[in-house]
Amino acid sequence: MPQSFRLPEGGLIDRARSLRFTFDGRSFDGHPGDTLASALLANGVHLVARSFKYHRPRGIFSAGAEEPNALVQLGEDPRTDPNQRATQVELFDGLSAKAQHCWPSLEVDFNQVTSLASRLIPSGFYYKTFMWPSWKYFEGPIRRAAGLGKAPRLPDPDRYDKCFAHCDVLVVGGGPAGLAAALAAGRTGARVILVEQDNRLGGSLLSAPETQIEGAPSADWVREAEAELATLPEVKVLKRTTCFAYYDHNLLGLLEKVTDHYAPYDRPAELPRQRMWRVRAGHVILATGAIERPLVFRDNDRPGIMLASAASSYLNRWAVKPGSRAVVFTNNEGGYRAALDLKSRGVDLAAVIDLQLAAEGPLSRRARDEGIPIKTGYAVTGTSGHLRLKKVFVAPLDGAGKRVFGGGEPIEADLLVSSGGWNPTVHLFCQSKGTLEWDDSLACFRPDASMQRNQAVVGAANGTFGLSSVLVEAHAAALAAADAAGFSTGGEASTAPTSVEERDFLPMREIYLVPSIKPLGQGGKHFVDQQHDVTAADLLLAMREGYRSIEHVKRYTTTGMATDQGKTSNVAAIGIVAEHLGKTVPEVGVTTFRPPYTAVTFGAFAGRDVDDFLDPERTTPMHAWHRAHGAAFEDVGQWKRAWYYPQAGEDMAAAVNREVKAARDSVGILDASTLGKIEIRGPDAGVFLDRIYTNVFSTLKVGRARYGLMLKEDGMVFDDGVTTRLAEDRYLMTTTTGGAANVMSWLEEWLQTEWPDLKVYLTSVTEQWATMTISGPNARALLAELTELDLSTDSFPHMSMAEGEVAGVKARIFRISFTGELSYEINVPSRYGLAVWQALIRVGQKYAITPYGTEAMHVLRAEKGFIIVGQETDGSVTPLDLGMNWIVSKKKDFLGRRSLSRPDMLKADRKQLVGLLTEDGREVLPEGAQLVESNHDIRPPIPMVGHVTSSYWSPNCGQSIALALVKGGRDRMGERLYAALPDRTISCTVTEPLFFDKTGERLHG
Amino acid sequence: MVEDFLRQSPLSHLALAASGRSQRAEEDGVALAERPYRTVITLRGQAEDAVFVEAIQRALGLGLPRKVGQVSGDPRGREILCLGPDEWWVTDAADDAEPLVTSLTEAVGDLFAQVVDTSDNWFALELSGPRARDVLAKACPLDLHPRTFGPARCAQSLLAKAPMTLQQLDDTPAFRLHVRRSFADYAWRWLSDAGREYGVSILQS
Amino acid sequence: MLLIPCPHCGPRAEIEFSYGGEAHIARPEEPDELTDQEWSDYVFMRRNPKGVVLERWVHAHGCRRWFNAARDTVTYEILAIYPMGQNPPELPEPRYL
Fold first, then answer.
1. Do the beta carbons of residue A640 and residue A617 sit within 8 Å?
2. Which among B118, B140, B160 is the nearest to A765, CB-wise?
3. How many angstroms separate the CA atoms of A662 and B4, rounded?
């Protein structure tokens, strides 16, 4: 049955080429230019899906983005996309699609039993029924039975791209309005981006070949417009691109499908699959058109039932007959266009059923002249046909439109198209917080006031339906936008394209719920939201149960909440609620529009920022050496730091123990380049530091260094580090690795916002310097071999700095220690970092120099009880809690000082820093373990008295050591506490937080 | 003076000096090159202090740009980038910053100003070619259209997730991108990947 | 995503900026003369009105300068920017729909 519903001529398809595709395992042919939907219809396939809740057979309902039914699963894992609208999937050779949500097959779906039981499962059924003992027991099976397509199981193999773009005028929609706007704005020289979701420009004109613009067929005008736009250097036309979101300040999100329409074997490897554009537009012109509203009648969901305009599109654009014998059901004059199209393309037109009492417009007159049977004042009362429409039942309607007479006269038909008026596509406008007004004459919501500046809505999206008016309106809006963007107009460019056509769909008779011969909900269903299987009866039930706000009715019934976001159902739902409540439609109001307009795959949002690019990996100048020497790396913020250097046969514990021992026994070397460094200069630098740090820096002598602690204004420790006075008006501050950027911002904030009178300049030099720390009893001897500096304690004491050459490179050397050993921190310009590191390693061989990583550093400092900000502190710890009163000046004010005397800060039961030794010294406490006072009284609630912040095996102490924050800890010395683990407790004793070299002799070598 | 062979570019693991081309291949949309070791000196001072401005201009032989985003001088030689109302970069083709640091330090003397060698804090790479703007648009929210940006302009922004100082060198267009040294590998790989659809020529450093 | 007019760099994307909270909260000159309550108010308490807010921003990935902004939390419109240490300029009437 090769394309037996394809018309012999016409359509925007390339008949010279055939494309082979499969749907549900069956092979078909189509042509370039087809969508999956048009190709299926050309092959006589209407049944394409089963519905969400009742598993009812469903067909192709529309010809565009509004499609509620024809959702398919495209492709195979891993390249598979669920819920793709067949009406928007561009056909390519080898396309493979499957029906979703049916088992075992589309034709025979066992889950259709839910349809038989549908009277038992109204809205809210799940909420009301599956409550005991808990929803969680029911959720799995119900979710398996419900739902739409399947997400891919394998990682996405495709690449996605993201980019920023800027323009003076962004035009959304490439129909007549959008084209007229883009031309008008583009000719002024303004930067214009025109976005069209389709693969062709033209919009509604593609389905209406008889329309004329500039005295010629509109197709010619579209072609010329596209050609002209291509010649304008500042105009970019993006086809296959959907504007899915409208964010603040005219930032719009676009999704461009770059290679989705290529046959898999043809996809250019260098191109991303899809590209997300983030466009910042000076002005936005929304020319998003309108979507036809279906009529809500009984059993309005069978395959073979579609929108009237969709039938015209399939006939005219794709040269496909959507049926053999058709009934047109309309409430407006515009519905007769489909009747005329169907008749002229050879479809047997059984009747036009018109809710209007009379039809006297130009289209209906033409239809009558052509001999089309017209029944005005009639309604469709129901349909029959299981997998495809077979019969349409019609009956006369009473004057009020509330009931029908008689039993319903059957009409044989395999196609029923309906038109209930048009809804401007206001989604983007509403996302941008524009408000809508109800237009009584058009019976639709149309844009009222813009929240965003520099925004215009034109054409059908604005409720302007006559082609001639559309072109004039779009042209004027574009010129105004260009003018406001600074591009003057005049002469040729200021004339709008002309058309004589005022294609209007009025008059219409507003009836939202078409009555049937039986009461609502009996003998059939009036579907409002076909994708979520929400019926008119569900809406009425919600109202009987007390829901009044349309937002509540929406959530309770889930109408408009499926993947189509109710594009064909929302206004009907509002209309039905309004009729029932005796209110007007605007009184009921609309629900909130949110992005995205159509679904966007996660890959496009992620773009390039996945895998290796998920987060930058920052590396130090010595990184290559660490890698070459087998280092394991630890993530510290974005930095990759050498964690430990396992040798052959060593596990982490063995490597760390060896490194820790080496730093105490001879000499170790650590890459400390990641520490933050800030150069501070100015006459007020000392005063500034006094305000920032808890202790005094203005009295520091030149060439000397001091450890300092910074607090936030709430008194909590924020960062720490050593600051050195380089000159009378110059300091070098160091910060923690993770805090470097924050500290820099913090200092600038205070200087700029609170103390602009202080003369201080700051410059970050974190990465100017490669920093290597040599630590251990042989550190001095090693350094002496590479520098001429006098390293004796007299001339280079602890907490001081000297400048000189190390291994021939100019260096700043700080004698400071984070291990408790004699240590030198050598800083050289980063470009020489690796060379100097290698020199130290080479010369250090005679001292068995051992590179140590961050884990060994942590152990070494914990043996000495030195804190790490972010490990011992968590934003709720004061210097007093840490027992660091010695660093808190009593003589001056500093940031956070006043908070330290707040009553809460002085409580005796605040958590305080202590040491912990396990009863069994071999046992290492887990970091983060909660501490309790008893290991036998375990009835909840058990008072938590603290937690372990750091815990290691200390090879130098020969036992495990830990630091902890414990309530009133300093008064608990010697007390027994228990670390509570899921399956046991570990007994430990509270000690001073200092485990090694308690007198500090080793510091001096 | 330290021997040159002791120094390392943060991209030395890519061995660009040996493998790169001398110029962009005709069919490639962009060319990418590293520019390590250029002098970058951070200068802070008061633009409203005529003595400061005069001292700097005399020391450098260049006008001090006052508007943020302006650049004076020769992009391939010595130039001044205005990064903030009281912040500039003095960059120079010289790969030893010390003489310039010394002369600037002497020039500002006791004035309320700051001169800091930040040559190694930053890493420069150059992206040029007809599609250079398209590659940058993937990473950077700036509008680089010729109507809003151009030669002798600079801006600080983001390159994907790395902070960046960007300047346009000429109308090729060629851009110089400065990222912190530790971001060099990230930036290089990111741009190479982003340029793939246009073709990327890797140039010798 | 907002488009924020940096006083030095011109309009830039919000991702280049950091938010600095409510503006015009001066650090007390003499913290010791404040009651605990007054000090806590300074440290912790902030207004969160619907409508115009005066707030601080810093062009963190740009010129790193701080400035004040008047922004409407209903429309997200930035009504004015003005330097640190200055009072807000006269603001246009909010455009509520």
1. yes
2. B118
3. 33
Cβ–Cβ below 8 Å for A898 and C32: yes
CA A963 to chain centre: 41
The answer to whether position C90 is within a domain reads no
> Across all residues in chain A, what is the average pLDDT?
94
Of chain C, the end-to-end C-alpha distance in Å amounts to 21
CA distance A894 to A892: 7
B83·C65 Cβ contact <8 A: no
Range of the domain at C14: 3-82
Sort out which chain A residues have CB atoms less than 8 A from B181's CB and list them. Answer: 621, 767, 830
* A546 vs A133: which has the higher pLDDT: A546
DSSP A364-423: HHHHHHTT--EEETEEEEEEE-SSS--EEEEEEB-TTSS-B-SS-EEEE-SEEEEE--EE
Cis peptide before C89 (omega within 30 of 0): no
- CATH-assigned architecture of domain A294-420: 3-Layer(bba) Sandwich (3.50)
Say if A160-290+424-486 and A527-588 have the same CATH topology: no
CB contact under 8 A, B85 and C8: yes
Say how many C-beta atoms besides its own lie within 10 A of residue C72's C-beta.
18
Residue B119 C-alpha, separation from nearest chain A C-alpha, in angstroms: 7
Q: Among all chains, which residue has been given the structure tokens 């000719």?
A: A187
Instruction: Please give the residue of chain A at the shortest CA–CA distance from B143.
Output: A166
Domain total in chain C? 1
Residues 1-20 of C with CB under 8 A from B: 8-10, 12-13, 15-16
Residues of A in contact with C45 (CB under 8 A): none
Phi, psi of A948 (to 5 degrees): -80, 130
Class of domain B39-117: alpha beta
Residue in the block written with tokens 């036309």: A237
C8, amino acid identity: H
> What average pLDDT does the segment A702-723 reach?
98
A746-765 pLDDT, tens digit each: 999 999 999 999 999 999 99
Shortest Cα–Cα distance, C25 to chain A (Å): 10
Specify if C61 maps to a domain. yes
B145 at interface of C, judged by CB pairs closer than 8 A: no
Yes or no: say if C56 and A228 are a contact pair by the CB < 8 Å rule.
Answer: no
**What does CATH list as the number for A1-155?**
3.10.20.440
Check CB contact under 8 Å for B137 and A613: no
Check CB contact under 8 Å for B112 and A682.
yes
Q: What CATH number is given for A160-290+424-486 in this structure?
A: 3.50.50.60
The pLDDT of residue B2: 63
Find, among A221, A198, A200, the residue nearest to A501 by Cα. Answer: A221
State the architecture of A527-588 in CATH terms. Answer: Orthogonal Bundle (1.10)
Nearest 5°: phi and psi at A41? -65, -35
Could you tell me if C84 lies within 8 Å of chain B, comparing CB atoms? no
Look at residues A294, A296, A299, A297 and name the one whose alpha carbon lies nearest to residue A115: A299
Residue A444 contacts residue A422 (beta carbons within 8 Å): yes
Chain position carrying tokens 């802070």: B44
User: Domain locations in chain A?
Assistant: 1-155, 160-290+424-486, 294-420, 527-588
Percent of chain A with pLDDT strictly greater than 90:
89
Residue A2 CA to residue C90 CA, distance in Å, equals 73
Between helix A467-484 and helix A176-187 the angle, nearest 10°, is: 30
pLDDT digits (tens, 9 = 90+) for A436-487: 999 999 999 999 999 999 999 999 999 999 999 999 999 999 999 999 999 9
Q: Which strand (E) or helix (H) includes residue A26?
A: strand A26-30
Q: For the domain B13-36+121-202, what is the CATH superfamily, name and number?
A: Probable tRNA modification gtpase trme; domain 1 (3.30.1360.120)
Q: Are strands A809-815 and A911-918 parallel, antiparallel or unpaired?
A: unpaired
CATH number at residue C64: 3.30.2270.10
Report the alpha-carbon distance of residue A204 to residue A206 in Å, rounded.
Answer: 5
